[in-house]
Structures are given as C-alpha cells and as structure tokens.
Amino acid sequence: MRSGAEQPDAGSSGTGSSGTGRGPYFDELAVGQQFTAAPAITLTDGLVAAHQAITGDRLALGLDHELCRAVTGGDPLAPPALAWDIAIGQSTVVTQLVRANLFYRGLAFRRVPRIGDTLRTSTQVAALRQNRPREGRAPTGLAALRITTTDQRDRPVLDFWRCAMLPLRDPDRQTGHADDLDLIGRDVTTGELSALARGWQLGLLADRADGPHPADLRAGQSFAVTGGDVVSAAPELARLTLNIAAVHHDARAGGNGRLVYGGHVIGLALSQAARTLPALATVAGWHSCDHLAPVAEGDTLRSTIVVEHVDHLPGGAGLVHLRSLVRADGPPQRDVLDWRYVALLA
Question: I need a surface site. Which of 21, 42, 106, 175 has the fewest CB within 10 A?
Fold first, then answer.
C-alpha cells in the first residue's frame, strides 16, 4: 500500500499536532501516521436534542426511550448519524485544511452506542496519492484515512475509511505518493451487521411502526420521498460534532463561501428515509458514500430511495440494503449525494 512515503516534517507529529495550531498539509503526511488528539465526547440527551433539531432524526429507538428499553433491553440508543458525525468530526484534526471529501467506505458499527457513552477516535493515514498538477489550481493530494472509534471501555464502535483532498504547503514539491486508492477499504458482511441486533425484540417495533416491513420490499423498488428539507444551521452542526474543517466555518477557506459538511446532507437523507420507512430501527453500516457536488446553506434537498437487496432475519426483521440519491434544488438543481447503506428494519 505504501509508495515510498517520505517522513513528515519536523513540526508534524503522530499525535496530530503540527505545532502551528493548524492541521497538516498533504506534504506533511506519511502513511502509517496516527492522530489521536481530538477530544473525546460524551453522548448526552442535550447533544442528541441539538443534533435532532438540525438533521431531523426520526428513528423510534432513539426518540422513544421506553420502547428502546423494551426492544433492546438497555439504555436509549444514540442516533447513528450523531455517532458517525462525531467520529468524522474528531478525524478533522487531520483534515482541517480539506478542500473536498471524495468518499467514505466500509463504515460499520461494531456496537450501537447509547446515551451516556463517550466516544474517542483514532485516525490513521492509510494511503496517499498526489494529484496531477492542473493549470490555474493550487496543487493537492488525496489522503485515505482509516477512522476507528471506541467507547469509554475501549469497545469498538465504528471503523471506516474516508478520502480527503488536501493542499500542499510547498506548491513545487513532488512527494512521490502514488498509492492505489481503489484498494482502500473493505465491505462489511451480513454476519457482522446482523450481530448488532442480537437479542433485540424487533417485533415490538414492527407492531408500533407502519410499513413497509422487510417482507414487503423487493430489489429494484424505489420511493420518491414526499417533500424536501432545507439545509440550515450548518456551522452549528460542525461545531456540535467537533468538526474543525475550515471550509465549514470560514467563507474565505471555501473560496465561494462556506461549504456544508457532508454529514449534514447524509443526516437529512436518513431523516427522509425514516419518513418513508418508519420501521427503520437503525443503520448498521455503509457500503459507500459519494458526495457528487457541494451543498450550501439554504439549499432544499430531496431524495429517492432505492431498495438494492434484502437479507431476511428471523422473526420478520431484515437488513435492507438501500441507496439514497439526493439532489439539491439550488440554484442550480444538481445531484449531491449517492449513499449506499444497510438499514435494520423491523
């Protein structure tokens, strides 16, 4: 995987501190470098409520604490979108200078976090590839990062990869980084995903929630979600989840104004999916997530949900492989997200 990566500059360390109060440039990174400096964060009712106000989370097992205890036998679940937003936010100690995020791969929950858990994240540089120079554009490179999140008892919670485009500090430098990013990441297995709900009484949720249920779904079905959702409170969501990427806070860093954090778009897409599939218990993992175009505050997002596959589980529940295709009204109207994920449906 490694392509003769040079060692980082003396001012950059494996703990994520550059000594300058900023994240690293592309040419200050080396494969294998690890960053652990982001603060841990405890999942509280207040944090959940603030996140829900921005993303519109509608998952019943996070909203209805008594139902959650009956179904799962434990404390209330934290929204999955809050957990991955925090993991991504904690990883921005590496990507404060990011120009764009190209993909997420293989995101999988190893356990479902609950209110009261404390999440901490380690981010490792998995691969590096310097981009070819383009006339009129500052030089950049792609950093593939492996993000691992654990709880207060060091139990694994999340494990995934994302790819960030970062600028070079020295515009004339040739780093020699040329890793094949197609080799980065792995898909998650049905066994890994179904283990999350072992022992859950999902029939109780099925009795409360309207359909469709897994038995009602077939590959190729699609649902055009009724109504759109306006993107608002974008920098607030970034601050809430420890996301320090400058493009989400500083209009000058974004070039043409602030960019909306990609997790904001994903959170609204999940809210729209839960309106369409009220029996959605949680998201077990992602196959892939591609951001197709930037999103700005004030855009209205609309989505179409496609059923790709259904893995039926005992008792009528299922792992439903979904694809959310999201477009923004703009102006201009444009496709902004192609998200393929696995929903646990009662």
Answer: 21
Rounded average pLDDT over 325-341:
93
- Provide the 8-state DSSP code for 55: H
Q: Which residue from 57, 46, 47, 49 is spatially nearest to 229, judged by alpha carbons?
A: 57
Cα 337–chain centre separation: 12
3-state DSSP assignment of residue 164: strand
Confidence bin at 2 (pLDDT 50/70/90) = very low
Domain range annotation of the chain: 26-345
As a whole number of angstroms, the distance between CA 287 and CA 321 comes to 9
pLDDT, tens digit, 9 for 90 and up, residues 3-43: 333 333 333 344 444 455 789 999 999 999 999 999 999 99
Kindly report the backbone phi and psi dihedral angles of residue 278, in degrees, each rounded to the nearest multiple of 5, phi listed first.
-65, -20
Q: Are 263 and 86 in contact (CB under 8 A)?
A: no
